[in-house]
Amino acid sequence: MAQSVYTIVIASNGVGPTRRFYVPASWVKCAAFLAFLFVLLSSTVAIDYVGLLPKAREHQQLTAENRDLIKKTATLRELLQFKNAEVGKFKSLIEKLRNITSLIGGSGGVDQPLGGGAAREPAALSTPTGESLSIVLLAEETLAEARKREQEMATMWDLLSDRQSFLAATPTLRPTNGYFSSRFGLRIHPITRRPLLHAGVDIAAPYGTQVIATADGVISYAGYESGYGNVVSIDHGYGVLTRYAHNSKIFVRTGQKVRRWDAIAAVGSTGHSTGPHVHYEVIVKGMPVDPMNYILQDD
Question: What's the domain range around 137?
Answer without folding.
Answer: 73-168
